[in-house]
Each structure stands twice: as C-alpha cells, then as structure tokens.
Amino acid sequence: MSDAMTALNGASMQGPVAAVREAALQGMVLLRGDLADETLAAVVKDLTGCDLPGQREMVQAGNTAVAWMSPDELLLLVPYEEAGTTVASLSQALEGVYHLAVDVSDARALFRISGEGAREVLARLCPVDLSPAAFGPGEMRRSRLAQVPAAFWIDETGTISLVCFRSVAGYAFGALSAAAESGPVNFL
Amino acid sequence: MLILQCPYCGIQCDETELAPGGQAHLKRHGPGSSDEDFEAYLFDRDNPMGVHFERWRHANGCGKWFLAARCTTTLEVFGTYSAQTTEPPAEIADRIRARRPNWEGRT
Amino acid sequence: MSHRLPQGGRLVNRDAPVGFTFDSKRMQGLEGDTLASALLANGQGIVNRSYKYHRPRGILASGPEEPNALVGLGQGKRFEPDQRATTTELFDGLSAMSQNAWPSLGFDAMAVNQWFASMMPAGFYYKTFIWPRSFWMHIYEPVIREAAASGLPPKEEDCDTYEHFHAFVDLLIVGGGIAGLQAALTAGKSGATVMLVEQAAHWGGRAPVDGAEIEGQPAEVWINETLQTLGTMKNVRLRTRCMGAGVYDHGYALAYERLTDHAPEAEGPRHRLWKIRARQIVTATGAIERPLSFAGNDLPGVMLASAVRDYVVNFGVAPGHRTVIVTNNDDAYRTALTLIDAGLEVPVVIDVRDRVNSPLAREVSRRGVAVETGAAVMKVKGKKGVEGVMLCRANGTGGAGAPVECDSVAMSGGWSPVVHLWSHCGGKLTWSDENAHFHPDPNRAPTGAEGEVFVRTAGIASGAMGTGSVLQDASAAGAAAARAAGFTAKSAAARAADAEEAPMKPVWVMPEQALPELRSKMFLDFQNDVKVSDVQLAAQEGYESVELTKRYTTLGMANDQGKLSNINGLAILAGSLGAEIPQVGTTTFRPPYQPISFGSIAGEARGEIFQPLRRTPMHEWHEANGAYWEPVGHWRRPYCYQQPGETIEQAVQREVRTTRASLGLLDASTLGKLVVKGPDAGRFLDMLYTNKMSTLKPGRCRYGLMCNENGFLSDDGVVARIDEDTFLCHTTSGGADRIHGWMEDWLQCEWWDWKVYVANVTEQCGQIAVVGPNARKVLERLGGMDVSRQALPFMGWADGELAGTPVRIYRISFSGELSYEIAVPAGRARALWDKLFAAGVEFGATAYGTEALHIMRAEKGFIMIGDETDGTVIPQDLGLDWAISKKKDDYLGKRAQQRSFMTSPDRWKLVGLETLDGSVLPDGAYALGEGDNANGQRNTIGRVTSSYHSPTLGRGIAMGLVKHGPDRMGEVIRFGKTDGGTIEAKIVSPVFYDPDGEKQDV
Amino acid sequence: MRRYSAFAIAREALRHHTGWNRAWRSRDPKKHYKVIVIGAGGHGLATAYYLGKNYGIRDIAVLEKGWLGGGNTGRNTTIIRSNYLQDPSAAIYEKSRSLYETFSQDVNYNAMFSPRGVLMLAQTHHEVRGYQRTAHANALQGVETEFVGPERVKEIVPIINIDGPRYPVLGALWQPRGGTARHDAVAWGYARACSGMGMDIIQKCEVTGVRSDGGTVTGVTTTKGDIACDKLAIVVAGHSGHLAGMAGFRLPIESVALQALVSEPIKPCMDCVVMANTVHGYMSQSDKGEMVIGGGADGYNNYTQRGSFHHVEETVRALVETFPMISRLKMMRQWGGIVDMTGDRSPIISKTPLGNTFINCGWGTGGFKSIPGSGWAMAELVAKGEPGPLAAEFGLDRFREGRFIDESVAAGVAH
C-alpha cells in the first residue's frame, strides 16, 4: 500500500486556541444489516473486539472501534491495511445473513481538531450543541459541517475527530481552519 | 427554523440537517390506474391551513426518511414517526385531537 | 450650543482624549464617548440633511432609535454607510462623513426643496411624472434616485472577516438593563443555562442615568454586585456589544455581536452572528421615548428629554446652555433636575397637562424653574438650530404665541416598550390607555414547537414603568421562563420603590387645534420627512389601513424602521379616521431589530469556501497540466487541457483527434457509483430502470435509463452485476447523491419490506477511462491482468491488478473507441494515473476533458443527460425504446408515459442534423414551422440539443429533437438565428461515426 | 374622477391639499353583482379593470379579506421580465410587460415602471447553453433579449465581480426592457381606476363560503353578509387551495413561504436587475435606494409569512460573493410571503368544476411581473367563459394529460 495517499497529504494548521490536522489513512468499513441479529453482533465482536454500540454510540477496543450510524448501519474503524480483509471476513462470516459490507476508507477524509478551543471551532460550523453537557466521549454525531455532511466524535483528551467525504476534504479543512484562526469565544 | 426529532436516531434536528419531501401517505398509482387516480397521485396535494402530514429526510444525519405531523399556520409539531406506515399512528392522532379538538382527521 | 461640561460623565475617561475627524474636520473626544456625544461636545449641531427636503438635522436621540445622525464611517476597505453616531463607540483615528449634503452641511444646495415642500405632499410622485412616458426613466426617476437615500455605496472589497456561532441555551435574555440582570439572576439561580446579551458596551441601561435606587442604594451599586454574582455562575454567559437581532420559529434567535467595530485594527472577525436555540426567550429590551409633534420639532437642538439626560450624565456633554423642556409626563422633569444640577439653565418646563402636582414637579418648581401647565410649543424658532420657542395654550390653534429664548429643546411624549423581538414570531400587543402605548399581551404570546409559550418580556418591555415594578416583573419573567424550561425557580426581586408620578396625558398634535400651516411642519418620521399633514392626507385619500398609510407616506420605512414615528403616526391616523388607536393597530415588526451587516450573515462562506468544491484524486494533476475548469455541480472537471499557445477550441480538437487516433485518458471519477445489494436487488432495479436489470449476468454490464414518476428521463448509466444479489450502478456526474436519495426514498417509504441495501461508494474509487486504439496496449504495458478481448469482452468487467494496484476494469465505451474504465481506490488513483501516462508516452497519450468527451459521444449519437434531456423529455423521444423493457408491467415512470400527451405522435424526436455547408448549427436554435401561433409567436417544429464541430469528420454535427423527425430523414429544415436570420440543416441519423460499432468492440 | 397631474398638485398646494378626494370609494356590498372577484391584490384588481375596460362589464365587486394589495403584491421584489423559455409563458409575461410600459398613462397613476434591464447571469457552461436556447426561443416569441458576454455584463453592472474564484461570470441573458415598478402603486392604480369605472372594492370582507345551485355558482357568503353573483373569479394567491375547497374542488397546489429582504438605502450604485441562479440570489436597487434581494423558497407548506433564516443566509452569501461591495451594507428588513406552487411551477388560469367559476392562481414566484397580463387573460376567460390564446395552455386539465409548462428546464429558476 506504499503509494496510497490521504486527500490532503496530512495538511495541518495551528490557531490561537485550536489546531486542525488531517489524520493518517484510516480503515473504515460500512456495514448495513439487522443490528438485532445475534450472528451479526457476534461477528462484529469477533472481528473488532467491540460490542454492538447503542443508538448514536461509539464503542472502542484498542485500535478498532464500531460506531452506530443509523438503525441499520455501523461504521467499523480498523487499521487502513486491514479494511479489505475485514470486508472479506465479514462477507464470509455473514454468508446467508442479509447484509452489506463495503470498504469506504478511501471515500472519506479524517480530521483531528485539538486544543482547548476544539469544541468552539466546531460550534462555529455545526448546528449542534457542543457543550460538554450535551456532547461527550462515546457518542458518534452525524450532522453538517457548514455546507457538507460530516460525522464526529470527541475523546477523553478533548480532541475531536471529524469524518467527511474525501472530495470535500479541501473545503472542510478550509472551513475548519477559518474557524480555528479566530480566538476563544469563551462560551462552551 | 424548525426543529424535528428524528424518530430513528433520536436527534432533535435543526431544519438545516433535514431535507423536506412533501406530503406524506401518498398512495402510488402505477400502470393500470385510472387517469384520475394517477393525476391525483402526482399532483393533487393537501394544502391545509392547519394540521399537515409531511415527509422529511434526515439528510445531514442518519439518512432516514421519517414523517411529521405539523401545523402549517403555527408550525407547531404534533409528532414525528416512522415512514414505514400508511396512516399516522394512533398516538399521533390522539395528540393532534388533544391540541386541535375540531380537527376532522385526514382528508 | 452644545459643549463638554467641566465635570461629570460616568462613561468617559477625561484623562484619555481621542482624536477623530468629521467631514475632514479634526475633532477631539474622550475615551468612552459615542461618536454622537463627541460631536455634541465639539458643538457640531447639524449632522445630516433629511431625505426629501434636505432640512438640517441634528442628533435627536442617544441610542439605536436615532433617525438623523447617520454617517459614512471609515475609509476604503473599511468604509460603511449609514452608521449611527449614537451607537458608534469613539476610537482614535475614527473618520466620519456626513451624508446627503452638498456642498456642505451648512449650505446644502438641495435645501431649495424646502421651498417646494408644499408641492411634495405624501405620495405626490404617484400623481405626477406620468407624462411624457419616456421621461419617467430618463428624466424624473434618475433625479429622484439621486435625491433619495443618503449613504454612499462602498467602493472597495471588505477586508474584514465574519463568523457564526451556534449556541444552545435554556434561556436567552435580551437586554442588559436592570430588568435583564434581574431576570438572569433569578433564572441563573435555578441552574438553567442562561445567555444574557446587551447591545451596548456597558451594563445597566437607563437606571443609573434616571437616578433609580435599588436596595436603598444607587442603581449602579446593585448593577455591579449583580454582575459579580452572575460572573460566578457557571451556567450564565454574559455578552456586551451583542444585540438580539431577531426571533424565529422554534426558539431560534439571532444575536449580532460587534467584536471590533470599536477597534477596527484588532485581530479576529469583525462581527459574530449567533445562531441560538433557546428553550425560552426573555426580552428585557426596555422602552423608547416618543417625540412630540410641534412645528419645527426637527430642528437641530430639539432632542428627546431622556437623550439630553444621557448626554449630561453619561458623557458630561450639554446639548445646550439654555434648554426648554416640553412634556406630557413626569419623566422629563428628571431632565430638568439633571440640567440644573449640571449648572445649566432651564427657562421653563412646558407641560400639556392642566395641573401637575407630583414630587418631581414640585422639586423642579422648588429649584425656581417656571412650570407652564396646559401649555404647548406652537413652533420652534430658528433656521439651522434652535433659537427659541413660541409658547402657547395646549388646546386651541396656538394664536400668536409667546417667545422663549433658548438654544435647545428637550421633549418627551411618553414611553413605548420595545416590542420588536416579542412580535417577530407572532406575539400580539395590547393598548394601555394609562401609558398611551402598546405593550405585549401575555395571553397572545409567540408559541413554539410544542405549542408552548417561548417568549416572555421583562421590565419596561412588559409595560412596567417604575423601578420596583420593573424588578418584580423581570424576576417573575426569569422564574417563569426557567420553570417553562424545566427548572424549579422562584421569583425573588431586589427591593425598590416606584417613584410617585402623575399620570401622563397623551397629546399627538401640539397645539391640539393646530392649522395646516403648523401641521405641515410637525415631523413624525424625521428621516423620511413624513409630517402630520402627510398622514392626514393619506387617511383623507382612503389609504386607511395602517399598512397602506405606511406605504403611501413611507412612514417608518427608513433605517430606523419607525422606532420613533410609529406610535405617533398611527395616533394621527386614528385621529383622522375618528377611530381608537387599538382599532388601527400597528404595522408588522420584522427582523432585524437593528440593521446587521451582510458580511455577518454570509459568515465564513467567502472566496474559496463560499461553497464546497469537490475535487477528484487527480485534481492537482489537472491543475498542473493546464486544465480549463468546468463546474459540474460542486465538482470541478477539466473542460480541456490547454497547452502553451493553444486556444480552448484548439485544445479540444487536439484531444479528440489524439484519442481517436491513438490514446486518451479521462478522469471519470465524478461518475456516481452506488452498490445495490440484497435478495430483492434485481427486482428493485427493474423498478428503477426502464430496462430489465434482473436478467443481467454476473460479470456483465448494461446501459440503463432512469425516469421519474412523471415519466421524464432523469439519469442514465452503466449497471454492472457483481454477483447474484449485488449490482454496481453508475450515475451521471453529480447525480450520485440525488439518485442515492431517490433509491433510499423508494426503499424506505414504498417498498420497505424489500430486502435491499444501498451504499454510495462514489468516492471510494477514482475512475480512469483509458480510450483509443492503443488502450489495450497501454494496459498490457502496466501488466497484472488479462485485458484481452476474450478475457474481458466488450460490456464485461473484471477484478484484478494493474502494476500492483488492485483495480476493477469495465469494458464500456462512451466514445465509440476501444475503452477501459478502471476503478481504483481513491488513495491510489493518482499513482495509477501517473503510471498510465508514463506508459502512454510512447503512444502520445493525451488527457482529455469534458468537451472532448461530449464531442466524441455526439459523434456516436449517444445522448447526454442535461443536453438531450431537460426534464421534459421521455426515453421514447430519444429513440431509446430498445432500452425500455416491454416485458415489465411496471417501472417508475411507465404509467406517466401512457398519458395522452406522452403518446402523441407529434412529439419532437431525436435526429442528427447537418448543415449544408458544414458549418456548426447554433446551439439551442429552434426549427421553424409554418406561420405564427395565436399569440403571434413563430411556430416551431424542433430544436437543437447539442451542436459541435467534429474534428473527426471535419464539419459541424448536431443532435436535435424534431417533430416527426425520424420519418423525415434527408429533409432539409430551417433553424432561426438570434439575429433574425435562418440556417438550413438536413435531417440525418444521429450516429455520425462508426455506425456499426466496430471500433469499440475489438 | 379628478385627474392626477403636476397642475393638480400645484392647485392643491395652495389650499394645503384639502381638496383631494378618496382614491377609491368605500361602501358596503350590494346584494348582487354580475361578477365577484375574490382578492383585491394586483391580479384580482387587474382582472376587474380589464373586465371593465375590454368587455364593458362594470357591475363588479372586488372582495378583500384584509387590505388592498396586502398579499404578495406588496411583498415581492418588483421584478418585471418576460425572458421565459416556453411559448405560453413568454406570451403572457411579455403581454404583461408591454402593458406595464403604458400602465401609468392608462390608469393615470404613476407606478414607476422602469425598464432598466434584467440580467440573468450564466455561471456554468450548462447555464450558458440554457440561456442561449432561451435567447433563440425569445427571438421567435417577439421577446427582446440578447446573450451577452462577461465584459458587457461588467459594463452594465460595474459593481459585479465577474471573475469570482468559484463561479466566474461566463455571460448573461440580457432583457433591456425588463425592469421594476412600484408594487403598491400597481394595486392602488388599478383600484382607483376600477372605482372610477363604478366598481366596488370592499376591504375587510372575508369570503367564508361559496354558494352554488345545480353545479353553478350563485354567490358567496362573507363577513359582510351574502352577496349574489352571476360569475365568480377566485384570485387569491396563497389562499387558493383554501378558497377552492369552499367551491368544492382541489388544486395541484402547495403554499410555501418565499422570503425577501432589503438593505439600508444608499445612493444609486446598480441600475438594473441582476439574477444569479446558480448561486440562488437576485438583487436590484429601489428608487428609495435599498438593495432589494430575494432568493429561494422554503420546501415545506407554511402559511406564517415567516420563512427559515437559512434561506436568507444562502441568498446573502451568494450576493456577497457576486457583489463584494455589499459586505459592509446592512440588512434593514426581511419578510416572507406565501406563494402557491403548482405541479409544474406554472400558473393556472382556468375554468373549474363549478359552473361560472374561474380561478387564477399558482403564479409561484412570478406573480408581480404577470399582473397586467394575468388580469387581461383572466378577464377574457371570465367574460367569454372560455380561455383566449393567452390562457389556453394554462388550464387545470394539463396535469392529467401530462402537458406541462416547465420553465425550470432553462437553466434559470423563475422569480
């Protein structure tokens, strides 16, 4: 996989109270199916070590994670190199179970927004309550980032990870940078 | 600027996270249907000043279509519910009647 | 003559002088001044000229309601017209220009308009400038346009940035006066999250100026203590210079924060537009004092009594040495006392009330000021400023009047609550006879998503007039809002008394029996020059609805949106109609409360991030290789690649020739790709496409058409069957999201019991079309998989590797040449693209853009969605019947295509078109029929849908829709040109190149 | 009726304008009228005016539930153009535009029609082709338009940014005789003229029911009592579905909010109307100096006359990008109107299932510009009982036959 590239080659910027950078390649597998199906739950657990997340939840286990995207859709985060094999083993293990598994690693761009201003960077662009009381670790939130769809989560350190479509990575980085350029709002 | 709760992912959606989809509970008429029925299916729309049932898609979110019961004159929302139904569920109808006693039901 | 007092001024710092210019005149103010207070301190009486009559105008108010003092602020990239001097904080180096005066404020040529004022009553322009017809636009209107308005348009591009911020709170409280602070304090204690915003730079509002006492101390003490308490509350957010701009449905509110207007050179955005979702909104927006209507009430030096007080107390500025006070209520007496305390003269207080016996009045008399009751101002003397007033009886016509010398007049017509935010979202008002004003009717409040009340008012905004009542009302509002937001709160207001005041007396014209002479000098709307006589004329002519009067006279339609003029205006209207004021009602209050910058509304969406720009993995390569871009949806695709010295046309022709002769590469990544999987996938696609897809064999591809339920062609593309229950559907560029949504719509809302999953994988893969006679050779150079005709036949696909990169190759052709479309993971697409070019060098490979693509498909007679289709075309029109399954009894659009108009034999159908001389038919031209239709329009029988110069054939080729076209092969028809001429073309087959398709299937 | 003129004003000035009489008479309704027009907006009043002028029918009442011209006539962005693609649209909008040319003289009321030109920007290659097609169509329809290049665009509107980073201006469809007019004055002018012909314009009179006998209309019930009529014309824009319900039929219509806004007034800086459809915004400058701005409509049924703010945001964003100099201007006022949208976004001028009852509705975003033409065509329909050429294609039957008049096919959206 030597010649695989992210959309922006790891672009980054540092603002007064927040930094934005494009993360390295991340394996992402989209899995659609009946989330109530035990086989499916077992297979996911077996492949990722994660229990099935509840509504809007994200479960992490080491370098893998599983996020609830919709009532019949999960996003599996695995090492980039393993995305292909993950899809293969899913299809194998779910033989006969009605489902859809596809590798979307290259279809996405992933950003990390860090620093004490991280929440306020997103609050400038998303119609979402980003106060700690309303949004914390363990939730996968899908919404829009300014004019494009995006999904994001926050970790214990307060760093926010944001996923959007690869083709608009430049736009997303531009919007995030513009937001991170200005100082603290001291609201969140 | 409406807020509608997506019944699928539970989010109180900002209007800008949604895409409107027109009148709900339309019955599709295909080949074999009369000209009248087919015209009605494509063009005849409820346009009430009051209780209205409509389709919304959680486009900037879980991507699911859902239905909403809403008042077109006050924008009051009586409830949102699954798109996999041909009639508004009873609890929605009850809530409407509770707040709009002289509602005559769907026309 | 206004001037700075030796002492006083609670908001200014006397040790910090600030330099600024007005009309290029250097002036000095103090830190803490507004531009208005600084201008007054410099004795600048005239600050503007009125719209219509160009009468000299001075500062009338001290806040956002100011109608006169609008200036052009700043220069160049920071120039801004119509900035209010009263809400502009002074800063060092500020430069302001007066508007609407030429050559100067002192002498304004257009002031001659005043002599013709009697010729310019309300709506005069509707009655004249009618003849001769051509004069309106060329003579009359330009003059009117030049004369109207006052601000100059900015010349340069704004150099500042703007941003938005989304806030979610339990309570939004608008207004940082004592009411807002009290409401926030009560609500804050409940634990609710509270956002308190104040438009000015400081807290406390009018209370300190009015000398209010709270908890037995000056209001200022309580204000500071309360701010400290609020500051310690984790759940409370305080923001100054942040105006509540608008209230919208479902608890949405806009707040407009002016971050650097007071320090233009500072870092960061200039304005921040807050998009707030609040469970409850409390408007503690105070009240605005009303002017009185007497002749000459617009002269510089005539000011609102409360404003006079503000300038003295807040800024240590005296509007005049000798001030006559005219009022219909007690509050103006506070101004008298303030002036006396400041050592200024008050010759007389003119009070329209017949007898006044209140503590305030007694105190004023005790200080030796004459109080004339039952009296009125007949008119103000002076040309460019106040020289005195004529005193007369309040009832009656005024008579001669007795002169009183003075250099300023402080007037008070009573107070109107600021009800804008309450009204924006449907809150209704009710009239109070006691205070002669409209105040919010709590029984008809704005309602939210649950039908619940979501806006409440606090303090004077509710109509509570005394300090004690204000705090009581505000605390109650704060508690009620907190409870409505789901918290337990109880009201506990700070203790304060209501000052004992005598009732006010509504007086709308002064003197009451004033004759037209005077009435035509009484101004209601100062900025638009609307006078009492104008409103009376409107009523007389039948423009009786308050909305009609407003529109006919332009009352309240200027920058201040009637903040001062509305109530006075409709009182006059009611009077003229012999109706009660509440019957007449008010005009509609619309957002924003005060004008907000367009920049702040646009926010971050400027320049490169104005809209999303979608890039393919090869974008940088295109950029570096002379791409001339074409926007396709939000995508950018190369239209062609210009080589040095090449025109766009030359580049396109070269790309086509090279591709047809040898090898061309196309970045096809923008094509939509949807995976459709499940036991019912075939059945589902049979419904979506006009063709039968369920019969497609795994490993094979089929071209398909999609129609909407109206029967019209909406999208097309190649479908590949991956395995028994998996399909990959290609859509048009930019069609992916639309078609994905379309599929989900049917699966979720109509056939929800069908077992089908769809995923949009458009961006997972880059797609490269390798096209031309040498296409196979170049792939073989890369190696890795068998791309022979046997292994990978036309309309087949295969997975494999090229030069070590995993790929999926489709043997499909949109050009008519041997063609491979290679799908490769987006992250590796650029690398493969580079490898293909390296290997393609020996074949003289070229990259080609959308225009070459279009030409080559047109040469082959392939239709293009958006060219041959426009939303009114059905597949049958395009001779695509072969792609419409006869076996299926249903597919989306089938029923629609059975309607009479769709089955008519007269529909225009697809044909090829050739000019006789080989020239190119004008794109979009219509084919001429015989004669005209009933509306005198030329009858048409067809139109050109695509037209190009074909480098392959060396002449113009076109496709078009023509009535009975396919039956008229060889006929010559005429097309209209925009210059009125016509051009002839022969009807031919739309397939111009390789009709038997030999080249693509090798 | 006293003629309006400069001399009349001069004469009145001498007596402080005490001599002006009412622009239109106000009276209670008679028991019976030959024709009742429901709706005293521009379209309703124009219908009455041309019934009188072209067909000599003057026994007419125009009923208005609120105040005259208080619907969309007084809430729109006053754009007048006829550069439509489809023949039926071009015909009626051009008829309308040409009637606007002489409106002020015809009704002796200055509606300030100002043919300052309408420029529709082409900012994608697809739009260029769409407008070139429209230019070809217009040439055969007798509509004067021209496709002009970017340089000419810059000449006509110097404040425009023709090479923005995202959507450079590639050209524009230019209609030199398009323009604007004073919207209220159109309603007032017609009202005064109708009144002058002896018609009754009755405000604050809400129709609560439609009475019929044997499938033919006999009158209406109103808040001012029952009124009988031989013929009924329903011309109520946003409330058409509501009224149709009373008359016992349904319409292919949904009512949505369309928003507009104005800036604070500034001195003249833009002399024509500019529409930028790719980015969804259009702008002109009023005689008072405000920049008058409009954009897209909400996508859901709404009778509140309030829209959603994100549409304002999208529009302003687009115009700041197209006209960078407006960034430091300020939005002074925003508002919404209710527009009725038909299945093909084109209007309905039609007979109805109820005898002697006619409807004119569905103008969507094209209402103001069509007022005179719409009134002209509607008057013919009401007078003759059958549509004339202008209205022929706009019947309700087209939806069943699939015979649409779809303007969205040209790159432009209608405003």
List the helices and strands and how they pair.
The complex is a heterotetramer of chains A (188), B (107), C (1002) and D (415).
Chain A: E1 12-14, E2 19-22, E3 27-33, H1 38-48, E4 58-61, E5 64-70, E6 73-78, H2 83-93, E7 99-103, E8 108-114, H3 118-123, E9 141-145, E10 148-154, E11 160-165, H4 169-181
Antiparallel strand pairs in A: 1-2, 2-8, 3-6, 3-7, 4-5, 5-6, 8-11, 9-10, 10-11
Chain B: E1 3-5, E2 12-14, E3 19-23, H1 35-43, E4 51-57, E5 65-71, E6 77-82, H2 90-99
Chain D: H1 6-13, E1 32-38, H2 42-55, E2 60-63, E3 79-80, H3 87-101, H4 103-107, E4 118-122, H5 125-141, E5 146-148, H6 150-156, E6 171-175, E7 179-180, H7 183-196, E8 200-202, E9 207-213, E10 216-222, E11 225-234, H8 240-247, E12 253-263, E13 273-276, E14 281-285, E15 291-301, H9 309-322, E16 330-342, E17 348-351, E18 357-361, H10 371-384, H11 389-392, H12 398-401
Parallel strand pairs in D: 1-2, 1-11, 2-8, 4-13, 11-18
Antiparallel strand pairs in D: 3-7, 4-6, 5-6, 9-10, 10-11, 12-15, 12-16, 13-14, 14-15, 17-18
Helix pairs in contact in D: 2-7, 2-10, 3-10
Protein name (chain A): Sarcosine oxidase subunit gamma
Protein name (chain D): Sarcosine oxidase subunit beta
EC number (chain D): 1.5.3.24
Relevant terms:
heterotetramer; B: 107 residues; Folate-binding fold; two-stranded antiparallel ribbon; 2 helices; globular; D: 415 residues; alpha/beta; FAD/NAD(P)-binding domain; D-Amino Acid Oxidase, Chain A, domain 2; 8-stranded mixed beta sheet; 12 helices
Q: State the major sheet of chain B.
A: 4 strands, antiparallel
Structural class of chain B: alpha+beta
CATH superfamily of the largest domain in chain D: FAD/NAD(P)-binding domain
Topology, number of strands of chain B: 6
Give unreliable regions of chain B as ranges. Answer: none
On the 0-100 scale, what is the average pLDDT of chain B?
Answer: 96
Strand content of chain D: 25-35%
Q: For the record, what CATH class of the domain at 18-24 and 48-107 in chain B applies?
A: Alpha Beta
Estimate the strand proportion of chain B: 25-35%
Shape descriptor of chain D reads globular
Tell me the radius of gyration of chain B.
14 Å
Give the helices and strands of chain D as they follow along the chain.
Answer: HEHEEHHEHEHEEHEEEEHEEEEHEEEHHH
Rounded to the nearest angstrom, the radius of gyration of chain D is 21 Å
- The residue fraction in helices of chain D comes out at 25-40%
Q: Could you please say which CATH topology of the largest domain in chain D applies here?
A: FAD/NAD(P)-binding domain
Strand order of the largest sheet of chain B: 3-4-5-6
* Average pLDDT figure of chain D: 94
The chain-level structural class of chain D is: alpha/beta
Largest sheet of chain D: 8 strands, mixed
